[in-house]
Design brief:
Length: 236
């Protein structure tokens, strides 16, 4: 199979992909935290956004300024009051971030398929393609079983599949999501690709699509890549 990623991919963020990710995941009125861990002297960089143009601009600027391993945002909307921590801007050396109790409602079942490799390095093209292929198989099989439409995305090193849900943020929802991820891991994890079973918490942060994945140094066989949304259902 011809890999879908090449080492010649861009090494900078893509503002169009950033906007597409925001438009895919969020709706008007949402408040979203952006979080960038491990920014050296800047510590953790964080900010809260309800203006999506400001959000997109902040993601693009942060990708270029900090060149971090990864930029993330909360997959589920947070309490509007948290805007007061850093309103439509990023704050360096942030000492507070979103907790599970700060999430209004669960909107997504996030499935992260990551190729097996040593920690702290990017995936090879072959490893990357293995995760994308596994994600496509998962989507196809679950759709055939009545799960409905889902989003397919490229994390830069692996693959994401997201199913739309509408759950309260409570203990029962956590139990259900954790159980589903565990069962999906039993079914789709092996010695090449793993389903991340740690993504069940409500305040889970997720790769900000359109920004770069920069784990480790970029070498020809393990390049840095752009994260992006690949497929969105027509009714999304």
């Amino acid at each position: 199979m011809t890999p879908t990623t090449k080492t010649s991919l861009p090494v900078h963020c893509n503002i169009a992909e950033i906007h597409r990710g925001i438009d895919t995941l969020f709706v008007a009125g949402d408040v979203i935290e952006v979080r960038i861990p491990k920014c050296g002297q800047y510590g953790t960089v964080s900010g809260y956004f309800d203006n999506f143009d400001s959000l997109a601009s902040a993601l693009a600027r942060a990708d270029e300024r900090y060149r971090p391993q990864g930029i993330y945002y909360t997959i589920n909307p947070v309490l509007p009051a948290l805007l007061a921590r850093a309103c439509n801007r990023l704050r360096e050396r942030a000492d507070l971030s979103t907790s599970d109790a700060d999430i209004l409602r669960r909107r997504w079942l996030p499935i992260d398929l990551d190729p097996v490799r040593p920690a702290g390095i990017s995936s090879t093209d072959e490893e990357h393609e293995a995760a994308l292929t596994r994600a496509r198989d998962l989507r196809s099989e679950l759709a055939a079983e009545g799960w409905g439409p889902s989003i397919l995305a490229d994390s830069g090193n692996g693959a994401h599949v997201l199913f739309r849900i509408d759950y309260a943020n409570d203990a029962e929802a956590l139990r259900v999501v954790a159980s589903v991820l565990g069962k999906l891991s039993d079914r789709y994890s092996d010695d090449r690709v793993k389903v991340d079973v740690t993504s069940a918490n409500a305040a889970r942060i997720w790769k900000a699509y359109g920004t770069m994945a920069r784990k480790g140094d970029p070498i020809p066989v393990r390049p840095h890549r752009l994260s992006r949304v690949l497929e969105v259902p027509c009714n999304q």
